[in-house]
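Structure request: PF03932 family protein CutC, Paenibacillus enshidis.
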Amino acid sequence: MSEKKLLEVIATSVDDIVQLNDSGADRIELVSALSEGGLTPSIGMIERAVEVSSLPIRVMIRPHSRSFRYSKEDLEVMVRDIRAVRGVGASGIVLGVLTEERWVDTEALAFLLAEAKGLSVTFHRAFDEACDLEQAFDTLLQFPQIDRILTSGGQATAVEGISMLGRLRQRSEGTPIRILAGSGLSEDNLADFLAATGVEEVHFGRAVRLEQMLDGPIVSEAIRRIKRSLQ
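Returned structure:
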């Protein structure tokens, strides 16, 4: 495992992108509709974000928030979005697909990843709805393009999922996949969380926004404090 700990932060606008580049974040997840858990942003936003950012940007590929099960037409839309993301030069994508029985949908995943050549891939918190997280992890190892799993350990928050996150982190040793912990982390609980799990990458959303509001502006000093605590 690498020694450097990394901070990924959600952006919902180009203004967020500019501020995150000035605040010390390491990686950006670009989404729209944060109130729905994040959907695919417009191509115009993606293009401009890539133009102004020196940080790697991973773009959410999620056409709707109804579930993590997708129809044939949904998957066709997602493939076109992946193609567009690749075309504008973003570093990666964020996606997740499950079957009705809550297993990783390997057929749908293979279909999507065939269009993602050259992109880094995060499997997002659809992972937390899988019926067996450790088996889901092993399934995702079959897909070399996937290098991150964003997870709260199957619980509402990463702090509640701390035991599973520790096991997943151990399971990831010696594999291409890194565990990216997110949901419910804060400046106050981060140090204890990292010590307990050994996780090296963390994901922040509204916890770095003014008054922790989904539509609040990013607080740059909060990001700087978190980065100092990761060193």
